[in-house]
Every structure is written in C-alpha cells, then in structure tokens.
Amino acid sequence: MDINSALHIGKVESVRGRIIEIKVHKSKNASHLLFNGQIIKGISVGSYIKVCKGFEELIGKIDEEFITEDKLISQKNYKQEKERIKRVLRVSLIGYFEKSVFKQGVKELPLLDNEAFLLTADEFSRVHNFIKDINGEPDIELNIGVLSNETGNSIGIGINSLFASHIGIFGNTGSGKSYTLASLYHKLFKVYANNSGFKKNAKFLLIDFNGEYSKGNAIVASKKIYRLNTRLEFDEIPNEDKLPLGREILFNVELLSILADATEKTQKPFLKRTVNLYKKVFDKENPVEYFRGVLKNQTNKTLLMADKDKAFEVLDYLFHLIDTEFENDSKRVFFDELEWQNTLHYFRLLGTNRQINTDEIQNTSLYRSIVSYDFPANDLDIIIHFLYVQIIDDLLVNKAKNDHISPAINKLKSKTKDLQKVIDFDSDRSIFAGNNFAIIDLNNANLSVKKTIPMLVASKEYLEQKIRYENENGSFFNLIIDEAHNILSYDSKRESDTWKDYRLETFEEIIKEGRKFGVFLTIASQRPSDISDTIISQLHNYFLHRLINNRDIQAVERTISYLDKISFDALPILPTGSCVLAGLSAQVPIIINIDPIPKENEPYNKTIRPTDFWDNEVSTEEEEVEQVEEENSETEDDDFPF
C-alpha cells in the first residue's frame, strides 16, 4: 500500500502563524486504520499529524476539529447536502523532523495546499523519544510510565534531563501526586543505589510534612529519618531524632531577627550587637572568665547607680543569669542583704545608712554567684544569656529602652524551648549520617517548627553544598519538599513580612542559582496557587495531576509556558495516577500513567475504606464486654430512677 495514499488526510487550508487549519479528506473518518500490520490511530484531538513542505516534514498537534460549509461548491455540483460539509482540523505546529530526529520548535511554516499525513508508528515513537545527547553522548533512559491514550507506548526520559533540573509535582489530594514523587526517586535509586559514586556524590533530603515517606520502606529502605516531635518533653526525645545543625547556625543575625520577629530599626541592631558580643567573648583564650568579668563590671555599675527603676530592671536580668531555674532564691537572698534608700537614691547594706561601696559589693551573694558563673550546657540558653548581658549593657549606657527590646528576647525564649526538642546544636555530624537519603518528618512538630526547620536546613545544606561543589565538581544535592505550599506561600497571614521575605528569598536563591552548584529542588503541592510565582516559573520539569480549583489552574496557566491547550484543558479531568508531563525533559507535553512501584516502597497516604471498619461481625470476647457494660448500665438506672 502506498504510504501517501494510506496516511494522507488532507491539505493545509490556512496558515495563521504556528496555528494552521487542515481540510480533511472525506474518506478519512475512521478512528483507526491498519497499516503494514500495525494499528494506527486515526484523526483525533490531541494526536499528531505531519505536514510535508517539499523535503521538510513539519509536526503539529491537533487542538480541535470542527465542520463548516464548503461555499466553493456550487449548488449544481453536489448530489447530497453532506457533500457541502467539510471537516477542518486546527493544528499547532510543535516541531519538525531533521535527519529522522524530532526537533522541538518551529523551523518554518507550511504553505497552502501542503499535504498532511498521519504519523507512522516509527514517526510516533520518534516524537516521543525524549532521550537527548548530553556532551555528545546519549542520556541514560529511565522509564516512568506509559501514554494514557496509547498504553502500549512506554515513556522514558533522560536521567540527566530530569534530575539535573528543578521539578514541580502538582495535583489535588488523591490525584497521585505523592505516588509520582515516590515513583521517580524509587526508580532512580533502583538504578544507582549500589554504585559507589552515587553513594558518595549524591545527597537527597526530603522535607516530609505529613509523615508519608518516613514509615517502612517508602521510596527506599536505606535512609536516615529524623522524627521531629514537639509534643513530647525535652528529656523524652532521643538525640538521634534531633537534627544535627551545629552551633553556628544559631548565632546568625538574620536568623535571630526572624525568630524574634525583630523590628528593623531597634531590635535587629540589638541582636547584631549581641552576636558581635558572642564572637568577641569566644575569641578570648578563656571565654567564660572574660564573660564573668563583664558581669562583674555590670554588677558594680548597677549597685552604684542612682536610678532605681533602671537598677531594678538590670537586677532582674542578672538574677535570671545566675538563677536559671527562676526560683528567685538569689533575689530573696540579695534583698536580705541590701535595700534601696528612697530619699538619697542608692543601695545600702541592711543596718547601715550609707551607700554600698565596691568592696562591700564583692561580698554580696549576687557578686559571689557571678564569680562562679558558668555557661549553660545548651547553646540556646547561652544565646539567651548573651541577650541578657547585651541588654544590661545597653540599659547602663542608655543605648536602648527595656520596653523596646524585651519583647524580642521573650519571643526568642518562647521559641528556643521547641527548638531544643528538635535540634542538636552540639553535634557536628552530617545530617545524612552515612546515608545519601535523609527524611525530616515534621508530622508531630508544631506550626512554628514546621515553618522554621525547612528554612534552617535548606540554608545550611545549600551553603555546605557550595563548599562541596568547589572541592568536588561532581557533588550533587537534591532538596525535595512535599506539601511545599506550607513554606513557599507568598500570601501567608501567620507570619511577619520580614519572616516571609527571608524564607522566600532563601528558596528563591536556591532555585535561581542552585544549578551552578549542583543544587536542585523538587517541590510537590496540592495548591500551586499558594506558591510564589517566581519559584513555579523557574521549575524545569512539571508533573501535573488533576487540578480542580480555578486559582490553581490559573496559576499553572500563568507560570508554565510548556503546556499546550489540550494538556491544559485535561487538568480538571485527569484520572488518579495520570499526569501531564511537560518541560525540558519532554519535547512535547504528554499525558502519562505513572508506572506502579512495589507496595513496600509506596508512600503511606492511602485513602481509607470506611466500610472495612464498619463490619457487623463482633468477636465473642467483644460481645461479653458489651453485655457486662449493658448490665452495669441497667443496674445504675435502677438505683437512680429519676
């Protein structure tokens, strides 16, 4: 059979830029045809056609079809009314064949009356061959699924094209979004997990808000899991469940400002002075002795001042420093020794009528406690002590007012209690603990920790990866964030603008500049409309599951340029497990069914079947318990008839 006659469908009737219209031959209305022993799908919306312009072969995708009246046919020249009706295809040009290889883009436009053809099976495969050459060598193929409308056609994409990119996985709950994320990384580890180079040079960190990937063997069996928990008491939490972020991450002006929700002009400069004080003290040969000296000078100045209100403000902070349990024992002993003389405005020893002198100050319980002062065991408590010392210094020299600074200190104190439960500041061990896949489970963490930890970890690991990349060119780091709308929202009302700006700037820098340092981001979310447009627009590859909310669909349309009309219109009606694949790794947007993975590697997020738990059958033991309860209830009713 002549290929031209078998696959020929019509001619180009109009050209409007890359949108062309093709008049279909009246004999080409079958849904399928048999060609060279293969079944080829006929004309349908979403399928591909080829337009021949001389020796050029241009490829288009059918966006829509319609019928119209052929006004060129004279009434005398037709026998039936249907002969006046013509079938027209509206087609978007998407690429062309060059030396039998499909190239994306518009090389040139067709001319009127150019012939249009269906694609052969071989040409169809070439359009869906997404394996590109990387540095002159073909990429390594990873099969991820099959075409939804052509289930016999497996889809493979290049590992380098996909994983050396920023990935977005979006879809409503129950659409298969989490399964797709698990499937992609499970397949990658299945190929490379045993390679020594992969173990050494590749690092994957997953932020898991709902605990879907931290149970069992989800994604991979070998992984380090941090189950952060703010519901338990501090001493109930194993140290191995705390994140080893190290001390230096805490003594950061920007971070402290965020945690304290510090004002730009008053509180942030105060925090900067505190950090400088910390660095100054720990640069000394004997930091604790130097710190004691600072406290001794402050005590002398306080007990010799004439301003009662300021003196008592400073004393409160000093008592907090030496009486860490806040039982006020030190304060009670102090006022058994000294009292304030209201008329002459000074401190005096009980039983005397003169102001206390320097020698007598050194014999007070307060001063003796300072002589034996030592730093707290916990770094979070240390920073609070430095905050106290800095505000004392500021008050003594009239550099700040207590009412302006104390709210920032109190906010930091309230947040340090939760951070102590989830962060190990004393450890310098790697967060990966000998693995190359780590998961941070935030399911049992409170909202404050859920907002703070991803930002801290992302910032720290990004900086460390920069250093690794400079030393080892092959170093690779992939940050995976499930339910990313929790931390990448630009319109959250639960936090200050300063916090929100810093958080978004952290992740926006990663997505804009990370590629240069081998850092790549994968985000999954139910609500793309809640995520910063800057972040979504910088993604390279998209897996789009069912989206129903209009705001989410509009966000996708506004920020993703890879989608065609057919793929976009399919978003609200995609079945579970199907998604639109679009981006740099796919030459054309396609709808695929994600391949299944072993049940033990699936995420733990299955929708329950309520009827499985509504069985009428009750065990004999349960019946006996119910009967006893009923008898007791009847007895109680007899005793109390009213």
Automatic annotation (TrEMBL):
Start and end residues of each stretch annotated as Disordered: 615-642
Superkingdom of source: Bacteria
Gene3D superfamilies linked to this entry: P-loop containing nucleotide triphosphate hydrolases
Domain Helicase HerA central: 143-333
Family annotation (InterPro entries): HerA-like, HerA_central, P-loop_NTPase
Name used for this protein in its record: Putative ATPase
Species assigned in the record: Belliella baltica (strain DSM 15883 / CIP 108006 / LMG 21964 / BA134)
